[in-house]
Amino acid sequence: MHPKVTRAAVLREFRAPLDVVDVPLPAELPPGSAVVRITKTTLCGTDAHLWQGVLPFVALPIVLGHEMAGEVVALGPGAERDAEGRPVSVGSRVVWSESVCGLCHACTVLREPVLCTDRGYGFSQRADVSPYVVGGLSEYAYLPPGAHRIVLADDMPDHWAASAGCAVKTVLRAYANAGGVEPGSTVAVQGAGPLGLIATAVARACGAGQVITLGGPGNRLALARGFGADSTIDVTDVTDPDERVAQVEELTGARGADLVLDFAGAPTANREGVLMCGKRGTHVVVGLAGPDAARVPMDVVISREIRVVGSLNGDVGDLSRALRFLSAFADRFDWDAMFSAPVGLSGAEQAIRDMASMAAVKAVVDPGLD
């Protein structure tokens, strides 16, 4: 037996208060599926954008939250193993990746499930259509077949694991797509949100010789320095994009950066990123620059032989690596410095507002607190 309804914070109208109500759960569990009790949900900038209506193609109502960890309360047939072959049972603590079909060209030929044509992004699941709740702002959530899960180690905190489900795995995939960090190289990180902070730590952990983080406000840049940034540039003070490029040029002795990663998604970020690259540099694009994106100087891409690489948000393999990274460097970086104190579902709306205003770096929701 499993719960047939769950309390959830439902978004019915953009920028409107969340409606905490009972929402159905599937009555029957198909093979490979599960139901979990959400223990922690960490909020992402995308949650704030969805609440604000920045992605107007999203059909409401929905339950937000796509970074979560939970405890298994029911399993469908054939769901007794995780993605790494370990047993899963009622009571197991798990984290999971977006569902994939396992049948399309990306899943089978490319073997890149992150590019699955039928990937189960949470914002595509309406709260009034079965299976209703796959988001984390709920007491219980449904894990569809193909949502590959990983059993958590006993010493892995739920909020760390939840953040691995998007933020951390996205960063690690970006570095993998870039070809890694060459020891002693210069890495510039655009953005000082959770992704930018994690990216700063990864660059330092991987042996970069110089790490430059651009972003704001000041409290986030202070965290970036704690995570290994040698230099920071506050974009709220240095508002001219060309001046930011000039400062990176000065910091690198006019050579430019070997690797520039965009986790900011600002309209000028990609133009700046290319201009910050040195000869044979690499610019990785993760952020969405939007419809008003500045023109990327392709003459610079050609003349410096710059690689421009797109990178999506990661799959279960990246999730596994994200968990290992957080654990391996727990003594070196103060991960908890990113997270706010947890709130219940009744505080979820304010937590989203805090993410939108950048009052919070990484808000945390614990549905069990209500």
TrEMBL record:
Domain Alcohol dehydrogenase-like C-terminal: from-to ranges: 194-327
Xref: InterPro entries: ADH-like_C (IPR013149), ADH-like_N (IPR013154), ADH_Zn_CS (IPR002328), GroES-like_sf (IPR011032), NAD(P)-bd_dom_sf (IPR036291), Zn_alcohol_dh (IPR050129)
Superkingdom of origin: Bacteria
Domain Alcohol dehydrogenase-like N-terminal: 31-145
Key words, A-Z: Metal-binding, Oxidoreductase, Zinc
PANTHER family membership: L-THREONINE 3-DEHYDROGENASE
Designated name of the protein: Threonine dehydrogenase-like Zn-dependent dehydrogenase
Organism annotation: Saccharothrix violaceirubra
